[in-house]
Protein backbone atom coordinates (compact mmCIF):
# COMPACT_ATOMS: atom_id res chain seq x y z
CA UNK A 1 0.00 0.00 0.00
CA UNK A 2 1.18 3.53 -0.79
CA UNK A 3 2.30 5.82 2.00
CA UNK A 4 0.91 8.70 -0.08
CA UNK A 5 -2.69 9.69 -0.68
CA UNK A 6 -2.27 9.31 -4.43
CA UNK A 7 -0.87 6.99 -7.07
CA UNK A 8 1.06 7.95 -10.19
CA UNK A 9 -0.29 7.39 -13.68
CA UNK A 10 1.77 6.11 -16.59
CA UNK A 11 2.96 7.31 -19.00
CA UNK A 12 2.09 10.92 -18.02
CA UNK A 13 3.44 10.89 -14.46
CA UNK A 14 0.28 12.66 -13.27
CA UNK A 15 -0.78 12.01 -9.69
CA UNK A 16 -4.35 10.86 -9.08
CA UNK A 17 -5.88 10.92 -5.57
CA UNK A 18 -6.71 7.54 -4.04
CA UNK A 19 -10.03 8.92 -2.81
CA UNK A 20 -12.30 10.96 -5.06
CA UNK A 21 -15.94 11.72 -5.71
CA UNK A 22 -18.34 10.02 -8.13
CA UNK A 23 -21.11 11.93 -9.90
CA UNK A 24 -23.29 9.05 -11.16
CA UNK A 25 -26.98 9.10 -10.19
CA UNK A 26 -26.97 12.72 -8.99
CA UNK A 27 -29.97 14.59 -10.46
CA UNK A 28 -28.80 17.40 -12.74
CA UNK A 29 -30.68 20.05 -10.75
CA UNK A 30 -28.74 19.07 -7.60
CA UNK A 31 -25.35 18.42 -9.15
CA UNK A 32 -23.78 21.89 -9.11
CA UNK A 33 -24.33 22.41 -5.39
CA UNK A 34 -23.40 18.84 -4.47
CA UNK A 35 -20.16 18.78 -6.47
CA UNK A 36 -19.21 22.26 -5.24
CA UNK A 37 -19.66 20.99 -1.68
CA UNK A 38 -17.60 17.89 -2.50
CA UNK A 39 -14.72 20.05 -3.69
CA UNK A 40 -15.11 22.34 -0.69
CA UNK A 41 -14.96 19.26 1.57
CA UNK A 42 -11.59 18.37 0.07
CA UNK A 43 -12.28 16.17 -2.95
CA UNK A 44 -9.87 16.75 -5.80
CA UNK A 45 -10.78 13.80 -8.04
CA UNK A 46 -14.17 14.18 -9.74
CA UNK A 47 -15.35 11.17 -11.75
CA UNK A 48 -17.95 12.06 -14.38
CA UNK A 49 -19.41 10.76 -17.63
CA UNK A 50 -21.62 11.93 -20.45
CA UNK A 51 -24.01 9.11 -19.55
CA UNK A 52 -24.71 10.70 -16.17
CA UNK A 53 -26.47 13.63 -17.88
CA UNK A 54 -24.99 16.19 -15.49
CA UNK A 55 -21.68 17.19 -17.08
CA UNK A 56 -22.61 20.90 -17.53
CA UNK A 57 -23.54 21.10 -13.85
CA UNK A 58 -20.31 19.40 -12.81
CA UNK A 59 -18.46 21.91 -14.93
CA UNK A 60 -20.21 24.85 -13.29
CA UNK A 61 -19.36 23.50 -9.84
CA UNK A 62 -15.70 23.09 -10.80
CA UNK A 63 -15.45 26.59 -12.26
CA UNK A 64 -17.23 28.10 -9.26
CA UNK A 65 -14.84 26.37 -6.85
CA UNK A 66 -11.89 27.71 -8.85
CA UNK A 67 -13.37 31.22 -9.04
CA UNK A 68 -14.01 31.21 -5.28
CA UNK A 69 -10.37 30.36 -4.61
CA UNK A 70 -11.14 26.97 -3.05
CA UNK A 71 -8.91 25.15 -5.49
CA UNK A 72 -6.71 25.72 -8.53
CA UNK A 73 -7.45 23.93 -11.80
CA UNK A 74 -4.14 22.05 -11.69
CA UNK A 75 -5.08 20.66 -8.26
CA UNK A 76 -8.20 18.99 -9.66
CA UNK A 77 -8.38 15.68 -11.50
CA UNK A 78 -11.43 15.62 -13.80
CA UNK A 79 -12.65 12.42 -15.47
CA UNK A 80 -14.93 11.96 -18.49
CA UNK A 81 -16.07 8.86 -20.43
CA UNK A 82 -16.81 7.92 -24.03
CA UNK A 83 -20.24 6.31 -24.34
CA UNK A 84 -20.88 3.11 -26.33
CA UNK A 85 -22.73 4.77 -29.20
CA UNK A 86 -19.75 6.96 -30.12
CA UNK A 87 -16.99 4.37 -30.66
CA UNK A 88 -16.96 4.77 -34.44
CA UNK A 89 -13.95 6.90 -35.27
CA UNK A 90 -15.90 9.76 -36.84
CA UNK A 91 -17.84 10.28 -33.60
CA UNK A 92 -15.04 10.16 -31.01
CA UNK A 93 -13.64 13.68 -31.36
CA UNK A 94 -17.00 15.48 -31.76
CA UNK A 95 -18.50 13.77 -28.70
CA UNK A 96 -15.36 14.43 -26.67
CA UNK A 97 -15.64 18.09 -27.64
CA UNK A 98 -19.16 18.05 -26.25
CA UNK A 99 -17.80 16.84 -22.91
CA UNK A 100 -15.09 19.49 -23.00
CA UNK A 101 -17.72 22.15 -23.75
CA UNK A 102 -19.97 20.79 -20.99
CA UNK A 103 -17.13 21.13 -18.48
CA UNK A 104 -15.92 24.40 -20.09
CA UNK A 105 -12.35 23.44 -19.32
CA UNK A 106 -9.24 23.57 -21.49
CA UNK A 107 -8.45 19.90 -20.94
CA UNK A 108 -9.67 16.74 -19.21
CA UNK A 109 -7.31 14.87 -16.88
CA UNK A 110 -8.61 11.40 -17.76
CA UNK A 111 -10.95 10.14 -20.46
CA UNK A 112 -12.15 6.53 -20.38
CA UNK A 113 -13.88 4.23 -22.83
CA UNK A 114 -16.98 3.54 -20.72
CA UNK A 115 -17.66 -0.05 -21.87
CA UNK A 116 -15.85 -2.46 -24.23
CA UNK A 117 -18.76 -2.62 -26.66
CA UNK A 118 -19.70 -0.40 -29.58
CA UNK A 119 -23.39 0.24 -30.22
CA UNK A 120 -25.03 2.06 -33.08
CA UNK A 121 -24.84 5.84 -33.14
CA UNK A 122 -27.70 7.71 -31.50
CA UNK A 123 -27.81 11.50 -31.53
CA UNK A 124 -26.89 12.53 -27.95
CA UNK A 125 -29.80 15.00 -28.03
CA UNK A 126 -32.11 11.98 -28.07
CA UNK A 127 -30.70 10.80 -24.76
CA UNK A 128 -28.09 8.24 -23.80
CA UNK A 129 -28.89 4.62 -23.13
CA UNK A 130 -27.72 1.12 -23.97
CA UNK A 131 -30.63 0.92 -26.41
CA UNK A 132 -31.48 2.88 -29.54
CA UNK A 133 -34.62 4.95 -30.07
CA UNK A 134 -36.52 1.76 -30.96
CA UNK A 135 -35.44 0.17 -27.65
CA UNK A 136 -33.13 -2.22 -29.47
CA UNK A 137 -29.63 -3.25 -28.43
CA UNK A 138 -27.56 -3.21 -31.62
CA UNK A 139 -23.81 -3.60 -31.84
CA UNK A 140 -21.76 -2.04 -34.64
CA UNK A 141 -18.44 -3.09 -36.16
CA UNK A 142 -16.24 -0.34 -34.75
CA UNK A 143 -12.72 -1.66 -34.12
CA UNK A 144 -11.42 -0.58 -30.74
CA UNK A 145 -8.09 0.15 -32.41
CA UNK A 146 -9.71 2.94 -34.47
CA UNK A 147 -11.41 4.36 -31.36
CA UNK A 148 -8.13 4.31 -29.42
CA UNK A 149 -6.21 6.11 -32.16
CA UNK A 150 -8.73 8.95 -32.03
CA UNK A 151 -8.17 9.22 -28.27
CA UNK A 152 -4.40 9.22 -28.76
CA UNK A 153 -4.84 12.14 -31.17
CA UNK A 154 -6.67 14.04 -28.44
CA UNK A 155 -3.79 13.38 -26.03
CA UNK A 156 -1.35 14.64 -28.67
CA UNK A 157 -3.47 17.79 -29.02
CA UNK A 158 -3.26 18.45 -25.25
CA UNK A 159 -7.03 18.10 -24.74
CA UNK A 160 -6.72 14.91 -22.67
CA UNK A 161 -3.84 14.20 -20.30
CA UNK A 162 -4.53 10.49 -19.73
CA UNK A 163 -6.66 7.90 -21.51
CA UNK A 164 -8.02 4.69 -20.08
CA UNK A 165 -10.70 2.04 -20.06
CA UNK A 166 -13.65 0.99 -17.95
CA UNK A 167 -15.36 -2.39 -17.51
CA UNK A 168 -12.70 -4.18 -19.58
CA UNK A 169 -11.48 -7.67 -18.74
CA UNK A 170 -7.94 -9.01 -19.16
CA UNK A 171 -8.52 -10.28 -22.72
CA UNK A 172 -9.81 -6.97 -24.06
CA UNK A 173 -7.11 -5.03 -22.20
CA UNK A 174 -4.39 -7.36 -23.48
CA UNK A 175 -5.56 -6.83 -27.05
CA UNK A 176 -5.49 -3.06 -26.55
CA UNK A 177 -1.92 -3.22 -25.25
CA UNK A 178 -0.73 -4.89 -28.47
CA UNK A 179 -1.37 -1.75 -30.55
CA UNK A 180 -1.69 1.16 -28.11
CA UNK A 181 0.93 3.82 -28.82
CA UNK A 182 -0.21 5.50 -25.58
CA UNK A 183 -1.11 2.71 -23.13
CA UNK A 184 -4.18 2.99 -20.90
CA UNK A 185 -3.41 4.75 -17.62
CA UNK A 186 -6.46 3.48 -15.76
CA UNK A 187 -8.95 0.63 -15.63
CA UNK A 188 -12.22 1.44 -13.85
CA UNK A 189 -14.22 -1.56 -12.65
CA UNK A 190 -16.94 -2.61 -10.24
CA UNK A 191 -15.05 -3.54 -7.09
CA UNK A 192 -16.20 -4.35 -3.57
CA UNK A 193 -15.92 -7.28 -1.11
CA UNK A 194 -18.62 -9.23 -2.99
CA UNK A 195 -16.68 -8.76 -6.28
CA UNK A 196 -13.01 -8.44 -5.38
CA UNK A 197 -11.51 -9.26 -8.81
CA UNK A 198 -8.14 -9.78 -7.13
CA UNK A 199 -6.44 -11.40 -10.15
CA UNK A 200 -7.65 -8.68 -12.53
CA UNK A 201 -6.54 -5.90 -10.17
CA UNK A 202 -3.13 -7.46 -9.61
CA UNK A 203 -2.57 -8.03 -13.31
CA UNK A 204 -3.63 -4.51 -14.32
CA UNK A 205 -1.34 -2.97 -11.71
CA UNK A 206 1.51 -5.21 -12.90
CA UNK A 207 1.04 -3.67 -16.36
CA UNK A 208 1.32 -0.14 -14.98
CA UNK A 209 -2.44 0.40 -15.18
CA UNK A 210 -4.00 1.93 -12.05
CA UNK A 211 -7.44 0.69 -10.98
CA UNK A 212 -10.45 2.82 -10.04
CA UNK A 213 -13.28 1.12 -8.16
CA UNK A 214 -16.90 2.03 -8.67
CA UNK A 215 -19.75 0.71 -6.49
CA UNK A 216 -17.41 0.38 -3.50
CA UNK A 217 -20.45 -0.09 -1.26
CA UNK A 218 -21.63 -3.06 -3.32
CA UNK A 219 -25.33 -3.85 -3.44
CA UNK A 220 -26.09 -0.84 -1.22
CA UNK A 221 -25.89 1.41 -4.29
CA UNK A 222 -28.13 -0.61 -6.64
CA UNK A 223 -31.90 -0.88 -6.87
CA UNK A 224 -32.20 -3.91 -9.17
CA UNK A 225 -30.15 -7.07 -8.83
CA UNK A 226 -29.10 -9.72 -11.36
CA UNK A 227 -30.33 -13.28 -10.77
CA UNK A 228 -28.46 -15.07 -8.02
CA UNK A 229 -27.40 -11.94 -6.12
CA UNK A 230 -30.68 -10.96 -4.45
CA UNK A 231 -29.95 -12.98 -1.32
CA UNK A 232 -26.74 -11.16 -0.42
CA UNK A 233 -26.96 -8.99 2.65
CA UNK A 234 -26.63 -5.23 2.20
CA UNK A 235 -22.86 -4.80 2.35
CA UNK A 236 -23.19 -1.67 4.51
CA UNK A 237 -24.94 -3.82 7.16
CA UNK A 238 -22.85 -6.97 6.87
CA UNK A 239 -21.79 -8.24 10.34
CA UNK A 240 -18.16 -8.68 9.25
CA UNK A 241 -17.88 -5.07 8.02
CA UNK A 242 -19.82 -3.73 11.01
CA UNK A 243 -17.52 -5.59 13.41
CA UNK A 244 -14.37 -4.26 11.74
CA UNK A 245 -15.80 -0.75 11.78
CA UNK A 246 -16.41 -0.95 15.52
CA UNK A 247 -12.91 -2.29 16.08
CA UNK A 248 -11.37 0.71 14.29
CA UNK A 249 -13.91 3.23 15.62
CA UNK A 250 -14.87 3.99 12.03
CA UNK A 251 -18.09 3.78 10.06
CA UNK A 252 -18.79 0.92 7.67
CA UNK A 253 -18.37 3.10 4.59
CA UNK A 254 -14.90 4.11 5.72
CA UNK A 255 -13.93 0.46 6.20
CA UNK A 256 -15.08 -0.48 2.69
CA UNK A 257 -13.11 2.41 1.19
CA UNK A 258 -10.02 1.74 3.32
CA UNK A 259 -10.12 -1.92 2.24
CA UNK A 260 -9.87 -0.94 -1.44
CA UNK A 261 -7.24 1.75 -0.86
CA UNK A 262 -5.18 -0.84 1.05
CA UNK A 263 -4.59 -2.45 -2.37
CA UNK A 264 -3.87 0.90 -4.05
CA UNK A 265 -7.29 0.83 -5.68
CA UNK A 266 -8.74 4.33 -6.19
CA UNK A 267 -12.27 4.87 -4.84
CA UNK A 268 -14.93 7.37 -5.97
CA UNK A 269 -17.81 7.18 -3.47
CA UNK A 270 -20.89 9.33 -4.00
CA UNK A 271 -22.86 11.02 -1.26
CA UNK A 272 -24.88 14.22 -1.05
CA UNK A 273 -24.18 14.63 2.68
CA UNK A 274 -21.33 17.02 3.45
CA UNK A 275 -20.36 15.22 6.65
CA UNK A 276 -20.14 11.91 4.80
CA UNK A 277 -18.02 13.58 2.10
CA UNK A 278 -15.54 14.46 4.82
CA UNK A 279 -15.53 11.04 6.49
CA UNK A 280 -15.11 9.31 3.11
CA UNK A 281 -11.94 11.34 2.60
CA UNK A 282 -10.73 10.66 6.14
CA UNK A 283 -9.70 7.01 5.73
CA UNK A 284 -5.94 7.06 5.35
CA UNK A 285 -5.42 6.55 9.09
CA UNK A 286 -7.56 3.41 9.11
CA UNK A 287 -5.02 0.56 9.00
CA UNK A 288 -6.75 -2.76 8.46
CA UNK A 289 -4.75 -5.67 9.86
CA UNK A 290 -4.22 -9.12 8.38
CA UNK A 291 -7.21 -10.57 10.21
CA UNK A 292 -9.47 -7.80 8.87
CA UNK A 293 -8.26 -8.45 5.34
CA UNK A 294 -8.72 -12.21 5.68
CA UNK A 295 -12.25 -11.73 7.01
CA UNK A 296 -13.19 -9.46 4.13
CA UNK A 297 -11.56 -11.80 1.60
CA UNK A 298 -14.02 -14.49 2.68
CA UNK A 299 -16.94 -12.31 1.55
CA UNK A 300 -16.03 -12.87 -2.11
CA UNK A 301 -19.21 -13.97 -3.90
CA UNK A 302 -18.30 -13.16 -7.52
CA UNK A 303 -21.44 -11.03 -7.42
CA UNK A 304 -21.54 -8.44 -10.18
CA UNK A 305 -24.44 -6.04 -9.66
CA UNK A 306 -23.79 -3.88 -12.73
CA UNK A 307 -24.49 -6.71 -15.15
CA UNK A 308 -26.60 -6.76 -18.28
CA UNK A 309 -29.59 -8.95 -17.63
CA UNK A 310 -33.10 -8.52 -18.98
CA UNK A 311 -34.51 -7.78 -15.53
CA UNK A 312 -32.00 -5.00 -14.79
CA UNK A 313 -31.24 -3.28 -18.11
CA UNK A 314 -33.88 -4.53 -20.51
CA UNK A 315 -31.54 -6.73 -22.54
CA UNK A 316 -29.27 -9.71 -21.97
CA UNK A 317 -25.63 -9.33 -23.06
CA UNK A 318 -22.70 -11.23 -21.47
CA UNK A 319 -20.12 -8.46 -21.78
CA UNK A 320 -18.25 -9.71 -18.72
CA UNK A 321 -18.24 -13.38 -19.70
Helices and strands in order:
Elements: E1 6-8, E2 15-17, E3 21-22, H1 28-40, E4 45-47, H2 55-67, E5 77-82, H3 89-103, E6 108-113, H4 144-156, E7 160-166, H5 170-179, E8 186-190, H6 198-206, E9 210-214, H7 239-247, H8 252-262, E10 266-267, H9 274-281, H10 290-297, H11 310-313
Parallel strand pairs: 3-4, 4-5, 5-6, 6-7, 7-8, 8-9, 9-10
Antiparallel strand pairs: 1-2
Helix pairs in contact: 1-2, 2-3, 7-8
Pfam families: Aldo_ket_red
Active site: 52
Binding site for substrate: 114
Question: What's the number of structural domains?
Answer: 1
- The CATH architecture classification is Alpha-Beta Barrel
What is the overall shape?
globular
Helix percent band: 25-40%
Radius of gyration: 19 Å
* Cα distance spanning the termini: 30 Å
How much beta, percentage-wise?
Answer: 5-15%
User: What is the CATH third-level topology name?
Assistant: TIM Barrel
Largest sheet: 8 strands, parallel
The order of strands across the largest sheet is 3-4-5-6-7-8-9-10
Low-confidence stretches: none
The secondary structure category is alpha/beta
Count of DSSP helices? Answer: 11
- Main CATH class: Alpha Beta
Amino acid sequence: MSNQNYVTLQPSGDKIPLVGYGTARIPANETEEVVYNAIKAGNRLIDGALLYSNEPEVGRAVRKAIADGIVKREELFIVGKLWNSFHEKEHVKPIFQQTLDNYSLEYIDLYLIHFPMATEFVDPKEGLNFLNAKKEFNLVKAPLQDTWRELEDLVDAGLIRNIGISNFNVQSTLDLLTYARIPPSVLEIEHHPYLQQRRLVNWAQSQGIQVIAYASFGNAVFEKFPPGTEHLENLMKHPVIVSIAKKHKADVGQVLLAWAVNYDVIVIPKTVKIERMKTNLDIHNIKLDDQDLKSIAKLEANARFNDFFENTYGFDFPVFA
